[in-house]
Design a protein that fits this description.
heterodimer; A: 268 residues; alpha/beta; Rossmann fold; 2 domains; four-stranded parallel β-sheet; 14 helices; 8 strands; 51% helix; B: 487 residues; six-stranded parallel β-sheet; four-stranded mixed β-sheet; 23 helices; 10 strands; globular; binds iron/sulfur cluster
C-alpha cells in the first residue's frame, strides 16, 4: 500500500543512480536521459558499476534466500549517505518495501530503504523542476506499473510532471489502474492469462488515440510493446524519463556509430 | 464439490477462449466495483473513510484471532447456555457426519439451505444427497447453480457467470410449466414460487454464519432475500455451519465489520436482512426451531493460524471484493480455479484447505498487482501471502515449510537457475559479461523458445548496456562523468 506521508530532503549535490537490470540491458538510453536530467538540474550522478539487479525476480518467484543474497550485495554498493534514485517503480517498491521485510526490518536496511527514491518521485518532490516544453504538440497517455502505483503511489508524480509540459496533451485511457499482465515469471508461468491482460491493456492504450504512451517501468513496457508489435499496431511506449528529457531538450541520444565502436570494444 | 485446482492451467485457458463468459464477468465485476466505490464514497466523516474503516476492521479481526482458542471456548459456553448445541469438526468428513446424524435423529428427509460457502467447502449437498436427504438451495443464485448442476463461481454472487438468457433457458427446461422469459423480475418470481413450497415442507434448515459472537453466544447471518430468515425460523431444526475464524469477541465488534462487509460485497449500507440467532424456540414462544446446532469447522484453518503471517488469511470476512477487482478472476471467472473459494482469497486460503500439492498453481497465478489488497476491508496483505506461499511451494526459504504439501512445487532445474542467477548478480564481472553477450547476440533472442511468445514478440536487448555506455563516457570524457567514486 502507498505510504502516507514522506518527508523529502532538500535537493542534494550528489545522488546514486540505480539503473535496474532492464534499463541496463534493454534501454540504456533511459539511464543516459536520467543522468542528463539530473545533471541539468545541478546534481552530480554516481553510478556504481558493480550494480546488477535489485533481486525482485527471485523474490517474486518465491526464492527468498537468493533475493536476500542479491539484495545484500546491492546495498553494499551505496555506502555514502546520498539518495539512491532508481529508474523503476517496481524495483523501487522492492527496495523500499520488500528489502526491510526480507531482513526483518534491521535498522541499517530500513535506513537504506529510506534513501531510495523512484526517479519521478525524486524529480517532482526533491528536485522540483520547472520545465519549459520545447517539443511539438502531442498526445500521450501514462501507464503506471502496479507496484509503482500501489506500493509507492507514483502515478501522481508522473501526472504532475507531464502536466508541466504545455504542448503535451495528457489523455487518460480506460481501466488505467488495471494491471498490464507482466508480473515477472507470471508472464511465462501463466502465459495465457498474462497475454489476455496485455491484450486488454494495449487495446485500451490504442483506444486512447495517442501518439505514444509513457511509463516508468520497463517491465510493463516490454510486455506492452511486444504485444503491440505482435498485433501489428504502430503504437509504442517509452520511458517517461526519456520523454521528459527530449521535451526539455537535454537528451543525448546514444549514437549508432558510437555504440557500435564501443560494442566491438566490449565484446573483445 | 469436486475440487480440481490441479486443472487450473487447462481450465483457465479454456475460460479465456469463451467470449460469453468473459463478457459476463467483465460486465458483472464492473457493476460490483462501481457499487462498492459509491458505497464507500458516501461514508460520512464521523465513521471515517475507507482507509480508517478498514484499519478498524483489521484491528478487530486481528484482536479476535489473537485470542481465537479462548474465544471459541467462550462461544461454546455461551451458546450452550443459550440452548444452542455446539459441535466440533476437524475435517469436512466429520462435519458432514455430524450434520447427517443430527438430521437422522429427527428422521429428516428434506433440507433447505441458506447461502453458505462452508457447506460448499465440505460438499454437504452431495454427501446428504447420497444418503437420502434432499438438500435444496434457497438463495436465488445458489438455486440457479444447483439447478444447472454447477458450483458457485463467486462467493457472494454464485450465479454471476450466467446471463438472463442462460437462466431463462435453464428455468424453461428444468421447471414445470415455465415459459422462456428474460425479464429479471419474472425470473425471480418463478424462483420464489418454487422455494416457497420447499420451505413449508422442510425438516431442517441449514445456514452459514457471518459472525459468531463469543460474549453473547449469538450467531449473525447477513442476507438480502429473506431465505436465511426462513431457513432459521420455519423448519424445526436449524443447523449452522461455520469456519472457526468467524468468531468475534463481543457484540460491539459486529457493526464495523458488518458495515465493511455489505459495502464491500454489494455496495449496500446494510443488507435487507440481518439475523441474530441466540437460542431455539423457548417455552411459550410461537415460532422458531425446536433445536439449534452450531458446527464449528477447522479443515486446515488451524494450520494457517499456527503461523503469524499466514494467520492473516483468517481475517477474511468473505466479502468478495478481492475477486471483483482481480484482473485474473475478471478474465477467467470462478470455475477455472477448481476450488470452493476462487480469486485472490481462494489462492491464499485453498492451500490450507486442500494442501499445497493440489493447489500449487494458484499462488503463482498472480501478477502481484495488489488490486486485491487495495480493496480488502480487513487489509489482508494478499500479495505478500501469495509470495510467502510461493516460498512454501519451492521450500526455498530459510524456514522449513509449514503448509501441508510444502516443497511440492519445487522444480530442481528452476531452483538451480535461480541459484546461478543470484550468484551472477553478486559477481558483477560475470553478470556484465553475460549482459554484453546478450547484447551481442540480441538478434537471436527472437528464436528463443518461450511461452511468452504466444501473443507477444520477443524483446531484444539494446546494442550496448548502460554499464558499457557509461564506462565509455567515462573513458573518453575529460569532464567528470557518472562513475564509481567510492571504492
Ligand atoms: S480477502 Fe478481503 S477482500 Fe477478499 S473476500 Fe476476504 S475480506 Fe473480502
Amino acid at each position: 500500500m502507498a505510504e502516507a506521508v514522506r518527508i523529502y530532503p532538500p535537493k542534494p549535490d550528489k545522488v546514486y543512480l540505480f539503473g535496474t537490470c532492464l534499463v541496463d540491458s534493454f534501454s540504456p538510453q533511459t539511464g543516459l536521459d536520467a543522468i542528463a536530467l539530473l545533471e541539468h538540474h545541478g546534481i552530480e550522478v554516481v553510478f556504481p558499476q558493480a550494480q546488477t539487479c535489485c533481486g525482485q525476480p527471485a523474490y517474486n518467484s518465491g526464492y527468498d534466500g537468493e533475493a536476500r543474497a542479491v539484495a545484500r550485495s546491492q546495498m553494499d554498493l551505496f555506502p555514502a549517505s546520498w539518495p539512491i534514485v532508481i529508474l523503476s517503480g517496481s524495483c523501487g517498491g522492492m527496495m523500499r518495501k520488500h528489502y526491510p521485510a526480507l531482513f526483518d526490518h534491521a535498522p541499517e536496511v530500513v535506513a537504506f530503504a529510506e534513501r531510495v527514491f523512484e526517479f519521478t518521485e525524486f524529480l517532482r518532490h526533491v528536485v522540483q523542476p520547472t520545465f519549459s516544453d520545447q517539443g511539438a504538440a502531442t498526445r500521450v497517455t501514462l501507464h503506471t506499473s502496479c507496484a509503482g502505483r500501489r506500493e509507492l503511489g507514483i502515478h501522481e508524480h508522473g501526472l504532475a510532471l507531464l502536466d508541466q509540459l504545455q504542448q503535451v496533451q495528457l489523455v487518460p485511457h480506460d481501466y488505467q489502474e488495471e494491471c498490464c499482465g507482466f508480473g515477472g515469471t507470471f508472464s511465462v508461468k501463466h502465459a495465457d492469462v498474462s497475454a489476455a491482460m496485455a491484450e486488454d491493456k494495449t487495446r485500451n492504450l490504442v483506444g486512447a488515440g495517442v501518439d505514444e504512451f509513457v511509463s516508468t517501468d520497463w517491465g510493463c513496457m516490454l510486455n506492452l510493446n511486444t504485444t503491440l508489435e505482435y498485433a501489428q499496431q504502430p503504437l509504442r511506449g517509452r520511458h517517461l524519463i526519456s520523454f521528459l528529457a527530449e521535451r526539455i531538450g537535454v537528451t543525448q541520444p546514444l549514437g549508432k556509430a558510437d555504440s557500435e565502436k564501443l560494442f566491438a570494444e566490449v565484446a573483445r | 464439490m469436486k475440487q480440481q485446482p490441479e486443472a487450473f492451467h487447462p481450465n483457465s485457458t479454456a475460460a479465456l477462449a469463451d467470449p460469453v463468459l468473459r463478457s459476463n464477468f467483465r460486465g458483472a465485476m464492473e457493476f460490483l466495483r462501481n457499487k462498492r466505490r459509491t458505497a464507500f464514497a458516501g461514508v460520512n466523516t464521523e465513521e471515517g473513510d475507507f482507509a480508517a474503516l478498514s484499519r478498524r476492521g483489521e484491528a478487530i479481526k486481528q484482536r479476535c484471532l489473537q485470542q481465537l482458542p479462548e474465544l471459541l471456548e467462550q462461544l461454546e459456553q455461551n451458546c450452550t447456555r443459550n440452548g444452542i448445541q455446539v459441535h466440533w469438526a476437524e475435517t469436512s468428513q466429520q462435519a458432514n457426519e455430524i450434520i447427517e446424524s443430527l438430521i437422522r435423529a429427527r428422521n429428516g428427509r428434506k433440507a433447505v439451505k441458506g447461502k453458505s460457502m462452508v457447506t460448499e467447502e465440505i460438499g454437504l449437498n452431495e454427501y446428504l444427497g447420497d444418503r437420502g436427504v434432499d438438500c435444496i438451495e434457497s438463495d436465488m443464485g445458489e438455486f440457479i447453480v444447483q439447478l444447472a448442476g454447477e458450483t458457485p463461481s463467486h462467493i457472494i454472487m454464485p450465479a454471476i457467470h450466467k446471463d438472463a438468457g442462460q437462466i431463462a433457458s435453464l428455468f424453461e427446461n428444468n421447471l414445470e410449466d415455465t415459459p422462456y422469459t428474460e425479464d429479471v423480475d419474472q425470473l425471480i418470481g418463478i424462483g420464489r414460487q418454487q422455494l416457497r413450497e420447499r420451505f413449508q415442507h422442510a425438516d431442517v434448515g441449514i445456514t452459514g454464519v457471518n459472525f459468531a459472537v463469543a460474549e453473547t453466544g449469538t450467531l449473525c447471518l447477513v442476507e438480502n432475500e429473506g431465505n436465511g430468515r426462513m431457513c432459521t425460523t420455519v423448519p424445526p431444526l436449524h443447523i449452522a455451519v461455520t469456519g472457526i475464524e468467524k468468531v468475534v469477541a463481543q457484540l460491539s465488534d459486529v457493526p464495523p465489520l458488518l458495515s465493511l462487509l455489505t459495502r464491500s460485497a454489494t455496495g449496500q449500507k446494510i443488507t435487507t436482512y440481518f439475523n441474530m440467532i441466540s437460542s431455539p424456540r423457548k417455552p411459550g414462544e410461537q415460532d422458531g426451531p425446536e433445536e439449534v446446532h452450531l458446527v464449528l469447522l477447522d479443515n486446515g484453518r488451524s494450520q494457517a493460524f499456527a503461523d503469524e503471517e499466514l494467520r492473516k488469511t483468517l481475517q477474511c470476512i468473505r466479502c468478495g471484493a478481492c475477486m471483483n477487482h482481480c484482473p485474473v478472476y475478471t478474465r477467467i471467472g470462478g470455475h477455472a480455479y477448481g476450488t470452493t473459494y476462487p480469486g485472490p482469497i481462494g489462492k491464499i486460503v485453498s492451500p490450507h484447505l486442500l494442501g499445497l500439492d493440489a493447489t500449487k498453481d494458484l499462488p503463482t497465478a498472480s501478477s502481484l498487482c495488489g488490486a486485491c489488497e487495495e480493496v480488502c476491508p480487513v487489509r489482508i496483505p494478499i500479495p505478500k501471502l501469495l509470495q510467502r506461499l510461493r516460498v512454501e511451494s519451492n521450500h526455498a526459504g530459510t524456514a522449513e515449510g509449514i503448509v501441508r504439501g510444502a516443497g511440492s512445487g519445487r522444480k530442481p532445474l528452476e531452483a538451480l537457475v535461480w541459484k546461478a542467477w543470484a550468484w551472477a548478480c553478486r559477481h558483477p564481472a560475470i553478470y556484465h559479461r553475460g549482459a554484453s553477450l546478450a547484447a551481442h547476440g540480441r538478434k537471436l533472442f527472437r528464436f528463443l523458445p518461450s511461452r511468452w511468445k504466444t501473443q507477444r514478440t520477443m524483446p531484444q536487448p539494446a546494442q550496448i548496456t548502460l554499464h558499457a555506455a557509461l564506462k565509455n563516457r567515462q573513458r573518453r570524457s575529460a569532464t567528470p562523468c557518472p562513475q564509481e567514486k567510492i571504492s
